[in-house]
Specification:
alpha+beta, Aminopeptidase, 8-stranded mixed β-sheet, 217 residues
Length: 217
């Protein structure tokens, strides 16, 4: 492990604090349900993430000056290092990567378990996570368009249902997920103790009559 990676892990532990809790929705898309895929404001295409894409996506010099955004970029860069399953949306005007997200199937359950924040995937399920849009491409509807396309890649390894998880207060992302064909199906609550050395997760399926299932964010 490099010194930089170790420093980031220590910083993340300290940032977690003694106690942390969160709630988010688990949104699910049924790939057998027809969807009129949303279009971004610019032409995009989707392909597998390549090592050469990382500078355009994660170059901190190109990020905003906001410390929170820079922290997010650093996290995504670390996650992308040596990690398979990533997809990018590419700006059709000049070929620049403008969005990234990772897709995992049941074969990846050991890695999903190590992330300590997601349920076990059944053989017909996939997980779409760690979305990131570089700051200069935000507000263009890229997330919804790219996410709808990437989710459909899950059918290539036999998945019918695709999950993604979004904080209850992240209205912009919840709207994007809905446009991409995802609807709330679970509530996930997580508690972290002792600088994130201990985590508890609770996953509660929403009742079929729960208004959140059809809520427009």
């Amino acid at each position: 492990m490099s010194r930089l990676h170790l420093q980031k892990r220590i910083a993340a532990r300290l940032a977690a604090g003694v106690y942390f809790s969160m709630e988010r929705y688990g949104l699910r898309r049924d790939l057998q349900t027809p969807l009129q895929k949303p279009k971004a404001k610019i032409p995009i295409s989707v392909r597998a993430l390549q090592p050469a894409d990382r500078p355009a996506l994660f170059d901190l010099d190109g990020a905003s000056d906001d410390p929170g955004n820079q922290s997010e970029v650093g996290w995504r860069r670390a996650f992308a290092a040596g990690r398979s399953g990533g997809y990018v949306a590419v700006d059709g005007r000049d070929g620049t990567p403008c969005y990234v997200q990772w897709l995992f199937g049941a074969v990846d359950n050991e890695f999903v378990r190590k992330m300590r924040s997601f349920p076990h995937l059944a053989v017909d399920e996939a997980l779409l996570e760690n979305a990131y849009t570089p700051s200069r491409y935000r507000g263009m509807g890229i997330m919804a368009s790219a996410m709808a396309e990437i989710a459909e890649r899950a059918s290539e390894f036999g998945a019918r249902y695709v999950w993604t998880f979004v904080g209850k207060d992240n209205i912009a992302s919840l709207k994007g997920c809905q446009r991409a064909g995802f609807a709330p199906d679970l509530v996930h609550r997580q508690i972290r103790l002792g600088f994130d050395y201990v985590r508890w997760n609770w996953f509660r399926k929403l009742d079929s009559a729960d208004p959140v299932r059809t809520k427009s964010f």
